[in-house]
Amino acid sequence: MSDPALRRASAGLAALALFVGACADAGEAAEELPEQVDFARHIAPLVHEHCAACHRDGGSAPFALITYADAGRRADQLDLVTSMGLMPPWLPAAGKGEFARERRLSAHELALLARWVEQGAPEGDPALTPAPPEFPEGWTLGEPDLALEFGPWTLPAEGRDVFRNFVLRVPLREPRFVEGLEFRPHNGSVVHHVNIMVDRTASSREADAAEPGQGFEGMMDNQAKFPDGHFVGWTPGKQPFRAEPGMAWRLEPGTDLVLQLHLLPTGKPEDVGASVGLYFADEPPTRLPSMVRLGPKTIDIPAGEGAYTIEESFRLPVDVLAYGVYPHAHYLARDMQGKVRLPSGEERWLLHIPEWDFDWQDEYRFKEPLALPAGSELSMRYTYDNSARNPRNPSTPARRVVYGPASSDEMGDLWVQVLAANPPDRARLEEELSGKRVVAEVTGLRTMLAADPENAGHHYDLGTWYLKVERPAEALVQFETSARLDPDFAFVHHNRGLALGKLGRVAEAEAALERALELDPGLVASHAALGNLLQRAGRAAAAETHFRAAIAADGEEINARNSLGRMLLGRGESEAAFALFREAIALRPKNPLLRYNFGVALEGAGRGREALDEFRRALAARPGWPPALGRCAWLLATLPAAAGGDPAQAQALAQAAVQASSGRDVLALDALGAAQAALGRFAEARKSAQAALALGAGPREAGLRARLEAYRAERPAPR
């Protein structure tokens, strides 16, 4: 070594790392070091296993470490960064969570590196150097079923980290199920990490169109989310993998993939682009995981605060298997802890990152799924340092930092991927998680607005959440404020119209939707919403005009076809209506709602056998869906055998629908009664009909009362 001081520091750090590693890896057998350490016999196998995935020609790292010529001249640096725990990049502490594919050097490997450097980093006999590892030149997972690309986009030479979102339209005509995704950057040296999300709305496309060039700036888009139950992304060295059997994720037609790239300027302009390979499963998923998100969105860190903490917990309502965790925060986070307390009181680590580094975030898959019984409490505790002592603090001097999506804001998420051990329990789990998410989103947006009350986007997002949870009056206040701050944003006027319509203020709703269309004449959603509003107001001709405008603006639009079809059916134009339903189904043949609505239309037209076929197709696309179960059961119970009637099957489906709706579905109870009567079980049929009437049967009440009288006379339901 040329620098004795560096050598001493490196050796001291390596000794410290050896001691810490030995303590952390309790039970690891001590392994005697060879007297003489050389590259060929000892160091080459180490760097090939732990470093070569990134440090190779064409890899994401800035230099290679494959050969002695590569590694020997960087021996001091290699020893220093490994002994300090900076490389390989692996943040979780040892012994606090067991993960697959850990990138961690053992105490013995650290000691080997230290002795090699102490001895002058000799090469040894080149003939003993193992062959370097081979890396596939093409796709790691094989040729994808669908490959998408973007770029080139030019990354500026100078400046801070860049977060840019690239939108990839996915050309699908029917739902597909993704079991694997592979991301291949065209210039890996500038891509730090990637989050890959899906957007089922036009939001990301519109943000892309609003900025020059490809993509748009920012940490996230509110409508772009990880696929249901999954986190999908890429970091240097991370190898692509296929989902657990039966756990592929659904990708709908019309969906966009949104790739959020964290990019690092290099001092010269760089071309950025990538290829994305999608691998489809042959069958729909049979196991649907859920994502438990822990972390309050009320972060508000005073300037200079060196130990600000956030905590949150969630008690699991059902038995689950936990498959992995994904921690996330920005530059101020330091210590991250995730734990689970079992009903017995036993506490286990999910994850501990004692020194968070925003530059090396990753997802961590457990070696084996964790079986967590109902009543287990997942918890997180993150600590932040917003003082000048934090070298990663992006603000000098330190300033107040609140929750938000920009890298200069802060976040604190711990995502845990779980699978309900009993599939029917997933609905209960998702219901509780949905309620939790609404509270988190609303409180987070309120926190951001407290710090930035004139932010039109935050007001719009808060209004959107209020609209989702059927609080239109509160939503309208936010949309009005957003429209005042940004009057030319078409979607805020669209949502103003939706909120006004829900409040019964029809004339104002119409004006708001018309304003949205003035700003964006091709806004399909506003044409469809205006059509529905006018139809409810009895202005059928005007409604039809807007439905047809929506269809003309987007040849793959299905909602306007569906609404117009229902309107035409109501005025007796059944063949024209059926033609629209068929067009929509041709565009989305596996969409269960379209199949269901077409079935209702056919049933109303007296075409029960065809309706039954459509309800069955809806169930094939969405197994266990209570409305389709109830409709199928009703027709099976009331149709003659020659037309497909089958009371026994009707009873089974109706019982499933009653169970799925916790006995609160009038149609399911009515169908169950009809099936029981058809089987001669009149006492049970009477109880089912009475239970349906007790719920307030609405438009089915008169028919139900007639059927109840028939059951009392021990006759089947009138057809």
Would you summarize the structure shown here?
This protein has 719 residues and is of the alpha+beta class. The chain is built from 22 helices and 19 strands.
Record the SSE blueprint:
Blueprint: H1 4-24, H2 39-50, H3 68-72, H4 75-83, H5 107-118, E1 146-155, E2 162-169, E3 176-185, E4 191-199, H6 203-210, E5 216-217, E6 233-234, E7 249-251, E8 256-263, E9 270-280, E10 290-294, E11 300-301, E12 308-315, E13 320-329, E14 333-341, E15 347-353, E16 364-372, E17 377-384, E18 401-402, E19 412-420, H7 426-451, H8 456-468, H9 472-485, H10 490-502, H11 506-519, H12 524-536, H13 540-553, H14 559-570, H15 574-587, H16 592-604, H17 608-621, H18 626-638, H19 647-660, H20 666-678, H21 682-694, H22 701-712
Antiparallel strand pairs: 1-9, 2-5, 2-8, 3-7, 3-9, 4-6, 4-8, 10-19, 11-18, 12-17, 13-16, 13-19, 14-15, 14-17
Helix pairs in contact: 1-4, 1-5, 2-5, 4-5, 7-8, 8-9, 8-10, 9-10, 10-11, 10-12, 11-12, 12-13, 12-14, 13-14, 14-15, 15-16, 16-17, 17-18, 18-19, 18-20, 19-20, 20-21, 21-22
Walk me through what this model shows.
- The chain is of the alpha+beta class.
- The protein has 22 helices and 19 strands.
- The strands form 5 sheets. Strands 5-2-8-4-6 form a 5-stranded antiparallel β-sheet.
- Helix 8 (456-468) runs parallel beside helix 10, helix 11 (506-519) packs antiparallel against helix 12 and helix 17 (608-621) packs antiparallel against helix 18 (626-638).
